[in-house]
Amino acid sequence: MAGSTKPSLPARLHIFAPQWGANISEAAQKLGSVSPTIHTDAVAAYEAAASDHNAVIVLENDGSYDLVELLTRVSGTNPSMPGIVVGKNIPVLAVKHIITLGRWDMLDAPVEHEPLRDALQQICRREDANSDSAAGKCWTVTGSVGGSGATLVAVELAYQFSRREKNNKVCLVDLNFFDGACASYLNCPSNLNQAALTQPADRIDDALLQAFITRHKNGIHLLSAGRSSRMWNSIKPESILKVLEVACNSYDMVIIDMPRWPTPWSNAVVMGSDEVLILSELTVPALHAARHRAEELEDGTDGLANPLIILNRMTKKVFGNAVTVSQAEEAIGRHVFASVSSDWEAALSSVNFGQAVGQTKPGNKISKDVAEIITRLEEGAETVAEPNKARKRA
Fold first, then answer.
1. Which are the contacts of 355, defined by CB distance < 8 A and separation ≥ 6?
2. Which residue in 131, 250, 348, 376 has the most C-beta neighbors within 10 A?
3. Which of these, 323, 320, 295, lies nearest to 309 by C-alpha position?
4. Global pTM?
5. Which of 125, 158, 184 is the last residue of a domain?
């Protein structure tokens, strides 16, 4: 997370930008203390920055070199190197690396000196990209079908993280701009103006983010826009990613409630998330939709995403009629990571009172299962049996 002291600017910029090099150099010179050096190829700029401890590399995404390959090289050999990528239509895999590398940022071209200064201060503030304080964790929750319970689980995840003694600054982000329900579930206003997401990404910072945050009395900070389709086509994917990047640098935990349909930013959000959970009902259509959703996210990220399927509203067997985890796995041909028990009374009280389930009815079955999911994910577990069966064995 960002420190409270204002960082100094780097002494030098090593720039590879065939189209915008002169523009970037001019913007850097206006900062006074920053000396720009333009290189003729990206590798030369990288090697120069790698051997210069007080410098930042600036790369234009012009298609003349493999940006993903270069960022992979940075991740493997010099993850603490600070850098900026300039340009539009940045590949999804490149965005994933930029989000993962704690000291990197993205700027639109042409580059103005004020956004450049802000970006340089931001990446120089992150002294150690590998430390726990460099950036918060990000978990994404999405549903396979409408009404699968993704929003309820996302709210409960955010609530349980907010109750911890440490690492408890939590932001719940609702990316469903058509019919998102996080604000309704928590009975609080949606303060995010969608017009802000139509602006250039370099204008988005923590101060702007905090202006749009809704602070719930249970400790969750909510970032949610009112339901609207008017500005859908104007929302910039890079602005969405910038919002999430700023949130991850300002909060210990970011929980994203993502719509189940594809968006221009879905794959990049998935690539930047530490965990991706797909909630499914126990009907055959919902299970098939969960499989298709998982395959869609895997295909969209070249197989690098690892979405986990969660079965919601599991019930105890009554005369052998209830669907089991093994039956669900057989139906979809995939492993099920975990399941959440059905507790209609607790869920109904939660939405009626505008609270998380664990806040309305402490110790309910849903909260216990969500807590178990958190524990297993943090411990790196792969699969889990049905909750009731697992507890019985224990």
1. 186, 218
2. 250
3. 295
4. 0.69
5. 125
